[in-house]
Automatic annotation (TrEMBL):
Organism expressing this protein natively: Gilliamella apicola
UniProt protein name: site-specific DNA-methyltransferase (adenine-specific)
Cited Pfam families: N6_N4_Mtase, TypeIII_RM_meth
Span of domain Type III restriction/modification enzyme methylation subunit: 41-93
Catalytic reaction list: a 2'-deoxyadenosine in DNA + S-adenosyl-L-methionine = an N(6)-methyl-2'-deoxyadenosine in DNA + S-adenosyl-L-homocysteine + H(+)
Similarity annotation: Belongs to the N(4)/N(6)-methyltransferase family.
Keyword terms of this UniProt record: Methyltransferase, S-adenosyl-L-methionine, Transferase
GO biological process terms held by the UniProt record: methylation
Length: 651
């Protein structure tokens, strides 16, 4: 099935018999004549409205035609631009579309292409078998790829159970979508553009354990393009005062920082947060002579508009051993009226412990001291600044604001009680910085009441991020949803949320986890936020079209199954390429970029699957909302009604 652009180009070239050998286009001759500016050919190309619209620009009444881009369409690989992109043959730095041997100015160039996640994977721990199909999408079809899709299999989950055949959606509904996240994000644009306050994602890290298994020279390029496509639309969804957090590790942190600078503007960079994610005791040391053990990950934070961003106060637990070793006095606050300074009392650590923290052997019990006094204590430190020394010599507490804006409480001119340490939820805390080492990463295997060993993030980590960058009723988005930690925490914290996941475990793990949250499960942060259950969410799926064939190709067990499926595809699938379909199964193909030619049957089974998937038009993976009245697509009346409700379309 040809794209409209290829059909229009063939229509123009049909007027030139010299370019055809029977029905095969002699593309090299066409390219040469374009380069030589053959007058009749140039006129014919310019007079075609489609080609003129895509490859020319009018400047002050003068038509400027991009012949270089047009010849690229004709030049690369057997299926033209709709299949193997030129970056499979040549990957590198470019300037204005030309490689470095043409120009000395250097810029990192991202071709416009999509990476499609294999649909057959059912568990995240199977990531090593994951496949990302990397293809350029036909330029004239890109609007169709990103147009809103039909939503199907809609359900509303609440404490009352599961309500099916949902036909309406409101702004108060939380939303979980199953489908390709790039296409889902574009479908969300109509309803949510500029409305999402906070985005957190934990994308594939581009390691040997995930699906970016191209040879080295494609590795970073593919991962960065995958991220770029999704981050650009994610930015459109963010509110002007919104913020995005992206977790990664050393494999792509530096590359990702540069990419984010280009998308969000380096002036909107907030911080690179370092998180301690493992203990040395748990790190494998078999290659310690070659590697320094990894115990950290990063979260890159960017605002959409830094001048409008307002972050909330956020505190991490104080290191009590450090506090007790460095300071010898504590302020004990009157718990009934902590704002009445006259009722505050200073006692020493030793005195406090002797009062209520001595064990049966008459020894100081520090842990007991922490527990008994956690809701009463600020730490103190000496300060001999002029601001303190010039205070009246009164034995009472005085609140001052330092030149840097820090609030301090002065007692008898000598002891400075730092208000930077606060009591929160019965615990003493300190303001967070850009190093987070207080979040427990052990014993997470059953957090959320399910077993998900790899890639699970601590609930406390997501709680801190959401607390820092949002308020109740703000919308939180995670489009690499995985096990659902982000939306589970957003639910418990009174935020609205949107989650997107393509893997089948969304129905085995993610949705059941949210159901347990609604029921009032008490794991993770539940006790910290006094979670009692309640609330609801709507689950829906992008209605599949060509994706059904991808699933069938991936689940095929033999060549014979693929051959039978291909015959069905020829009749019913949306095929994208200008190829002689009858020759696919008996044609010859290059192997590993060398001149060895083999038949389709001689390709490896994975290569056979890959080739059939490449024949599918990736613009037709899902059913477009504009096409839902087509009787051949079999969209139910319930799905039509919900889709109209979601996108705000009338009857």
């Amino acid at each position: 099935m040809q794209t409209e652009l290829i059909r229009q180009l063939n229509q123009v070239l049909n007027a030139f018999p010299e370019y055809w050998n029977n029905e095969k286009l002699q593309r090299t001759q066409v390219i040469n004549d374009i380069k030589e500016r053959k007058l009749d050919l140039i006129k014919a190309l310019i007079n075609n409205a489609k080609i003129k619209a895509l490859y020319s620009t009018e400047v002050d009444g003068v038509l400027v035609f991009d012949f270089h881009a047009l010849t690229n369409l004709l030049q690369y690989k057997e299926y033209w631009a709709d299949s193997f992109t030129k970056y499979r043959n040549s990957v590198g730095l470019t300037s204005e579309g030309k490689y470095l041997n043409y120009n000395s100015d250097v810029a990192l160039d991202f071709p416009f292409k999509d990476c499609v996640l294999e649909g057959g994977m059912t568990r995240e721990e199977q990531g090593k078998d994951e496949i990302y199909y990397n293809e350029i999408i036909a330029r004239d079809e890109i609007d169709r790829l990103f147009s809103p899709k039909v939503l199907t299999n809609v359900k509303r989950y609440s404490k009352n159970g599961v309500e099916e055949n949902i036909t309406d959606f409101s702004n108060e509904d939380n939303l979980i979508i199953k489908g390709n996240n790039l296409i889902a994000l574009h479908s969300l644009k109509k309803r949510y553009a500029g409305k999402v306050k906070l985005i957190y994602i934990d994308p594939p890290y581009n390691t040997e354990n995930d699906g970016f298994k191209y040879n080295d020279r494609f590795n970073h390029s593919t991962w960065l393009v995958f991220m770029k496509n999704r981050l650009e639309i994610a930015k459109e969804l963010l509110s002007d005062d919104g913020i995005i957090f992206i977790q990664c590790d050393d494999n792509e942190q530096a590359y990702l920082k540069i990419l984010l600078d280009s998308i969000f503007n380096e002036n909107n960079f907030i911080s690179t947060i370092v998180i301690k994610m493992s203990h040395l005791s748990g790190v494998k040391m078999s290659h310690r002579d070659k590697n320094i053990p990894k115990i950290k990950e990063y979260i890159l934070a960017y605002s959409k508009n830094k001048t409008l961003l307002s972050l909330n106060e956020c505190y991490q637990d104080a290191n009590w051993d450090d506090v007790l070793s460095r300071y010898n006095s504590f302020l004990v606050v009157n718990e009934h009226n902590p704002n009445d300074y006259s009722q505050w009392t200073v006692i020493s650590v030793k005195e406090a412990m002797s009062m209520n923290s001595v064990d049966e052997n008459n020894k100081v019990d520090i842990e007991n001291f922490k527990i008994n006094n956690a809701n009463k204590i600020f730490r103190t430190a000496r300060n001999s600044s002029n601001q303190v020394m010039n205070l009246p010599k009164e034995k009472c507490f005085t609140k001052i604001i330092t030149p840097t804006g820090l609030a301090k409480f002065i007692y008898n001119q000598e002891e400075v009680i730092f208000a930077s340490n606060v009591i929160k939820n019965g615990k003493i805390g300190v303001p967070i910085g850009d190093i987070w080492s207080d979040i427990g990463i052990n014993n997470l295997h059953n957090e959320g009441h399910f077993d998900f060993k790899n890639g699970k993030k601590p609930e406390k980590l997501i709680q801190r991020i959401i607390q820092l960058g949002s308020n109740e009723q703000d919308i939180i988005l995670d489009f690499h949803l995985g096990s659902g930690t982000t939306v589970a925490i957003a639910h418990k914290m009174g935020r609205r949320y949107i989650g997107v996941e393509q893997m089948d475990y969304i129905n085995d793990i993610t949705v059941p986890r949210l159901q347990k949250v609604i029921e009032g499960e008490q794991g993770g942060i539940s006790k910290d936020v006094n979670w009692q259950g309640g609330g609801s969410f709507v689950y829906t799926e992008l209605k599949e079209l060509n994706y059904t064939y991808i699933h069938q190709i991936q689940s095929a067990k033999s060549y014979d199954e693929l051959a039978k499926l291909f015959e069905v595809m020829k009749q019913t699938a949306h095929l994208n390429y200008q190829v002689e379909l009858d020759k696919i199964l008996n044609d010859t193909y290059e192997v590993n970029g060398i001149d060895e030619l083999v038949t389709f049957k001689d390709l490896t089974f994975d290569e056979q699957k890959h080739l059939l998937i490449e024949l599918l038009d990736k613009n037709q993976l899902y059913v477009n909302a504009d096409d839902m009245n087509d009787i051949n697509l079999k969209v139910s009346e319930q799905d039509k009604a919900f889709t109209r409700s979601f996108y705000g379309k009338g009857e």
